[in-house]
Design a protein that fits this description.
Elements: E1 7-11, H1 16-27, E2 31-36, H2 39-49, E3 53-57, H3 63-73, E4 78-81, H4 98-108, H5 110-126, E5 129-134, H6 150-169, E6 175-180, H7 197-208, E7 219-221, E8 224-226
Parallel strand pairs: 1-2, 1-4, 2-3, 4-5, 5-6, 6-7
Antiparallel strand pairs: 7-8
Length: 228
């Protein structure tokens, strides 16, 4: 059966994993909105995708801009919360500047939370929606919160908690909310990683287009549900 065309919004969709996700969603026939703090980059990225793609300037830390978003973009069926920062590699919890922690939480946790508040209620009213929060293995308690990046780890573990809370709130509404650990992906954060953004995008798009009755409130790794 052919996939139903939806309108998908990808934050941080102008490059890296976000752009690869936007490109694959577009290739599968969805209308794609590429969101980025830099409006020119967002529009350029959308132009590269072709017809049916649009670029918008959006800073997920700007509450007023996020509040205005629904009026700008209309109905959104798929939200991929990809925008994120990793500012603290090599830091330790007792020594890190807490201003750096605040900046990380503002994007990685509160940015995704703002987006959910702006878009999920309308998904619930329409009876269908998919939300994918891009998490990390460094957020996994099962893996022992590995890595020397305490602010990033805490922000992504908190994003996982938000995922569970949103899934509970939307249970039975037709909206599925999941977090995904895409693994190490070549990007500005990790240029040494073996996995390409396109490979990771395949797993993320699968989570973003789950069939009705699919998992919700889960932590995904490729096609598997993994322990938090």
């Amino acid at each position: 059966m052919a996939e139903v065309s939806r309108t998908a919004l990808v934050t941080g969709g102008n490059r890296g994993i976000g752009h690869a996700v936007a490109a694959l969603l577009h290739a599968r026939g969805h209308r794609v909105i590429v969101a980025s703090r830099n409006g020119a980059e967002a529009r350029s990225a959308a132009e590269r995708l072709g017809d049916g793609a649009r670029g918008v300037a959006l800073d997920v830390t700007d509450a007023e801009a996020v509040d205005r978003l629904p009026a700008r973009v209309g109905e959104i069926g798929i939200l991929v919360n990809n925008a994120g920062v990793q500012l603290d590699w090599g830091e330790q919890p007792t020594g890190i500047d807490l201003a750096l922690v605040e900046s990380t939480l503002e994007v990685n946790l509160l940015g995704a939370w703002r987006m959910a508040q702006a878009l999920v209620p309308d998904m619930v009213r329409r009876g269908w929606g998919r939300v994918v929060n891009i998490s990390s293995g460094t957020a996994s308690f099962a893996l022992g919160l590995p890595g020397a990046c305490p602010a990033y780890s805490v922000s992504k573990a908190s994003l996982n908690a938000l995922t569970v809370l949103l899934a509970r709130e939307t249970e039975g509404t037709g909206v599925l909310v999941n977090a995904i650990n895409p693994g190490l992906v070549r990007s500005r954060m990790r240029p040494d990683a073996e996995q390409s953004p396109q490979e990771a995008a395949g797993h993320i798009v699968r989570a973003a287009t789950l069939p009705d009755g699919g998992p919700s409130g889960a932590f995904l790794r490729r096609e598997a549900v993994i322990d938090w």
